[in-house]
Amino acid sequence: MAVKEVLLYPHPALKEICNPVTCWDDSVQQLLQDLVDTMIDAGHSVGVAAPQINDMRRAVVVDVSKSKLGKKQENHGLLQMVNPQIIERDGQTLVREGCMSVPDYTGNVMRAERIVVQFQDENQQLQVISAEGFEAIAIQHELDHLDGYLFLDRVSSLKTDLFRRK
Amino acid sequence: MRHFALTIIGRDRAGIVSEVTGILYQLGCNIADSSCSILGGQFSMILIISHPEMQNQTTLSEAFAVLEQSGLSVFLRTLKPGGEERPDLQGEICMISVYGADKPGIVYRVARELGDRQINITDLNTKLIGEKEAPVYVMMIEAILTAGMTVEDVEQWMTALKNEMNVDISVRSITPLEL
Question: Strand pairing of B177-178 and A93-99?
Fold first, then answer.
């Protein structure tokens, strides 16, 4: 059990591409637990990615079930994802996102509405799940961290964008 | 550190931002928050700037005189200490879209409904669109609801206004997803 410090940009770890987990030792279990503890400690945020706690392995945790918005939608509860990969995307939705690693700023980001994601769970079992709504957005956001992308890299419109399209 | 509010507006053309920020850079000014956009045919810039040593705006005014000669209007104001600090606004953020045939009072009536209830407007854009013969007015408002207020409350007030003004109004929550 350890709550880790959530790194803030411009910490370089947030712009790195993370490495696949190939060696399943105790440290993987420890990392997942740290991610969960950190997520819960941060006012039960809906997800944390390993690089946010300075671990450069491809692992994230997501849990939208405790959030006001997530509760209203179907979701998978706590997801502990190692080597996750989005294998299908469908639909587009514009959402305003914020990130614990980039405080005091939000931006409109285009995300897939529905995704199919495959990953290894905490028991090293391969899982394939489909997610939609807030959960799908949260997964896409956390997985971006594993490739060094922040929502700032994905902002697709200014607030006034509506008026710019002709 | 002293902060200043700088507003620049003038007929849009390429190079305005470069000229303005060139002057600021030469003077050693920092740009904190800023928002720049085309309104009508005018490019307008609103910036909060600071300088580590500058105490009054005389040097700034002098430096920008050259821009005024090129047809841009420059307004400058020295902020009171603390005037640069963004208030910590808590509460649900909602977006209100208002659109309909152009008529006087659309902005005022909607803003009054919000202002009377102490709802803080944090962003507002309006645009006149459509055909010349049948202009349509579009307004987008971002506002922060006060404690205990819901989007449904706002919807209710707006429904009354919608009928009175004969415009379309929709309200939705855009509180950012904290991830």
Answer: parallel
